[in-house]
Design goal:
This protein has about 300 residues and is an alpha+beta fold. The chain contains 10 helices and 15 strands.
């Protein structure tokens, strides 16, 4: 990171936050902006049998449970701690849902999506062993490196993201490796009942979204989410079309009936305010600039 003044640059030296607790408090107070999540609990006790404390419990934009663990140094235990607490979490779903209902309301408590809970690990650095271990865990894991610059600048860099149930997308962000398919059984059933043309469109859509840049995808209960720091496309398969919800402000788009729709104030599946319906290769091409705009907005 450099500061530019009158054409001259000066390097800004970065370092760890002074205290792990300081970082945790900062993130918990700003979770929607920093992580795209809603805060639930701080230092949550897992009871006398399990004997642990989860650093932060949260609910992400898809309604998935999230465990956030922090480490001031690149300790190898941060990922194992997250997996340890995940095992407890999936065995105590009722307790978690009751917490969500208490903090966010009864509707949120009833609609928690358990199809792919997440672990988010935040540290000053991760080793190659950490990124490989994340990929081998078969769970949904994000590794975030934080740095603090001067007094008022903090960065969170996503260095690895594993989709878990979505497939075997490479653990290291930006890798050119790609699984044979990111589609699991639920979406596959919808695709199997769709036309051959729609099946080909889905494959092409998937390719284009992943080729936009660094990012991952994950299959959730109702849709496949393509994400960077936040979701930039949520895709459902119907018999007639691919329905894509994008993180684009509808007021910036000239809406076309049957192709694009303003979702503000309308209950819908997926995160974002613009719906795009794609039923042909021409419509897929037509939607390309909207995909790029949504990808940029999700950085």
């Amino acid at each position: 990171m450099f500061r530019v003044t009158d054409g001259a640059v000066r390097r800004i030296e970065g370092g760890a936050a002074e205290l792990e607790r300081h970082l945790q408090v900062l993130i918990e107070a700003n979770m929607p902006e920093m992580l795209g999540m809603r805060f639930l609990a701080h230092e949550y006790s897992t009871g006398p049998v399990h004997r642990g404390r989860i650093d932060t419990l949260a609910l992400d934009e898809d309604g998935s449970p999230v465990i956030v663990e922090y480490k001031r140094t690149g300790s190898a235990s941060v990922l194992s701690q997250g997996l340890f607490y995940l095992a407890w979490l999936v065995e105590h779903r009722d307790e978690f849902e009751a917490l969500v209902a208490q903090r966010l309301g009864e509707d949120a408590g009833r609609t928690v999506d358990w199809s792919n809970p997440r672990i988010v690990c935040v540290a000053t650095e991760f080793t190659r062993y950490d990124t490989v271990a994340a990929g081998m865990s078969h769970h949904r894991v994000d590794l975030l490196v934080y740095r603090q610059y001067a007094q008022d600048l903090v960065t969170l860099e996503l260095v690895a993201s594993v989709a878990g149930g979505c497939g075997t997308r490479a653990a290291r962000v930006g890798s050119s490796n790609r699984p044979e398919s990111t589609v699991r059984k639920g979406v596959r059933q919808s695709l199997d009942s769709a036309s051959p043309e729609l099946q080909r469109l889905f494959s092409e859509l998937e390719e284009r979204l992943l080729d936009l840049g660094e990012g991952t995808c994950v299959e959730l209960q109702h849709y496949v989410a393509f994400r960077r720091r936040r979701n930039f496309a949520c895709v459902r398969v119907t018999r007639e079309a691919l329905v894509v919800v994008l993180a684009v402000d509808p007021s910036t788009v000239r809406l076309a009936p049957g192709f694009t729709r303003d979702l503000r104030g309308v209950g819908h599946l997926g995160t974002g305010d613009l719906e795009v319906r794609i039923a042909s290769a021409a419509e897929l091409d037509r939607a390309e600039p909207l995909f790029a705009a949504s990808f940029a907005a999700a950085a």
